[in-house]
UniProtKB/TrEMBL annotation:
A single BP term in Gene Ontology: threonine biosynthetic process
Binding of substrate, residues: 158, 238
Organism domain of life: Bacteria
Protein name: Aspartate-semialdehyde dehydrogenase
Stated family: Belongs to the aspartate-semialdehyde dehydrogenase family.
Subunit organization: Homodimer.
Active site per database record: 131 (acyl-thioester intermediate), 245 (proton acceptor)
Gene, per the UniProt record: asd
Catalysed conversion reaction: L-aspartate 4-semialdehyde + phosphate + NADP(+) = 4-phospho-L-aspartate + NADPH + H(+)
Residues binding NADP(+), per UniProt: 11-14, 39-40, 161-162, 318
Function: Catalyzes the NADPH-dependent formation of L-aspartate-semialdehyde (L-ASA) by the reductive dephosphorylation of L-aspartyl-4-phosphate.
């Protein structure tokens, strides 16, 4: 017998990717229900190669009998409906930011802290971290085990798909517009500045200390998931790429670690693919990682300005490992190790 799974936010970028990922990985689902806001009721979404699901109304859906909810609506929608689903007996794996820092909600990257999943029993909710945190931690975990990380300085280059479908449309329309002399302003709704042929050093809202919330997430989520002693200094930047987040990561360790040791341990690490030839083209770019599951690590090299320092570049499909795949991996562990059908 398999599971009854509801996907909340089924028409969004991540919701669609969740259903695709579940199908590809043969998630043991007997029934999959697509849920969306009232205005998307009846809209069709595909599950696998040949199944079309009609979206049902999240607001009136009765979660009783649903085993697992994969949730990726807006944070305020999740704040309202995830506790309702949990109260009806489902376990919610939530991709929004709403529950991530709740001490009674585990925040999980399966390659890093799968044991934390057991904490779902407190509230019936497991949180999926932010996309930029997930890919960085998949790469940092084996390095931390080897040489203990003291401090991380990271600059991100994040694709527009992290901002949803409207953000992707904005990049597309502004790019097209440039060739027909249309001002970018005419096609600007989501971003604060032109995104086509530009980069924007601002993701999510500004906080009192000048950090953006996206940067803050990388700091606090790293502490919650990997190690509270790690200091993170993050700068998050939106770039005109459709899919795939990139990060240039500088790490300072407590113990000495050579480039080769880092490369070898990363080669063995789950979820990581090392492509690192120190020559033209010997690295992975976001255009090559779209549709892939791995976190790709390249450009591993010493930082000669500190005692135990390394730099590396990592890219990953933010809709897959940064969102849908990580959520489905959590659900897989939940199904096999905890719910036991
Ligand atoms: C972004 N971090 O890329 C968001 C998506 N979760 O905007």
């Amino acid at each position: 017998m398999g599971y009854k799974v509801a996907v909340v936010g089924a028409t969004g970028n991540v919701g669609r990717e969740m259903m695709q990922t579940m199908f590809e990985r043969k998630f043991p689902a007997d029934e999959v229900i697509a849920l969306a806001s009232h205005r998307s009721v009846g809209k069709e979404v595909s599950y696998g190669d040949d199944q079309i699901l009609k979206c049902q109304d999240l607001a009136t859906f009765d979660f009783k009998g649903t085993d697992i909810v994969l949730s990726s609506p807006g944070a305020s929608v999740s704040a309202e409906f995830s506790p309702k689903a949990a109260a009806a007996g489902a376990v919610v794996v939530d991709n929004t930011s709403h529950f991530r820092m709740d001490p009674d909600v585990p925040l999980v990257v399966p390659e890093v802290n799968p044991e934390a999943i057991a904490g779902y029993k407190k509230k019936g909710i497991i949180a999926n971290p932010n996309c930029s945190t997930i890919q960085m931690l998949v790469a940092l975990k084996p390095l931390h085990d080897l040489a203990t990380i003291k401090r991380v300085v990271v600059a991100t280059y994040q694709s527009v798909s992290g901002g949803g479908k409207a953000a992707m449309d904005e990049l597309f329309n502004q790019t097209k517009g440039v060739y027909v002399n249309q001002s970018a302003e005419e096609n600007r709704k989501v971003f604060t500045k032109q995104i086509a042929f530009n980069v924007i050093p601002h993701i999510d809202k500004f906080m009192d200390d000048g950090m953006t919330k996206e940067e803050w997430k990388m700091v606090v989520e790293t502490k919650k998931i990997l190690d509270a002693n790690i200091e993170v200094c993050a700068s998050c930047v939106r770039v005109p790429v459709f899919i795939g987040h990139s990060e240039m990561v500088n790490v300072e360790f407590v113990k000495g670690i050579s480039e080769d040791e880092a490369r070898n341990v990363l080669r063995e690490a789950p979820g990581v693919t090392v492509i690192d030839h120190h020559k033209d083209g010997g690295y992975v770019t976001p255009a090559e990682c779209a549709g892939e599951d791995a976190v790709f690590v390249s450009r591993i090299r010493k930082d000669p300005t500190v005692k135990n320092g390394l730099n590396f570049w990592c890219v990953s499909d933010n809709l897959r490992k940064g969102a849908a795949l990580n959520t489905v991996q959590i659900a897989e562990i939940l199904a096999s190790d905890y719910l036991g059908k």
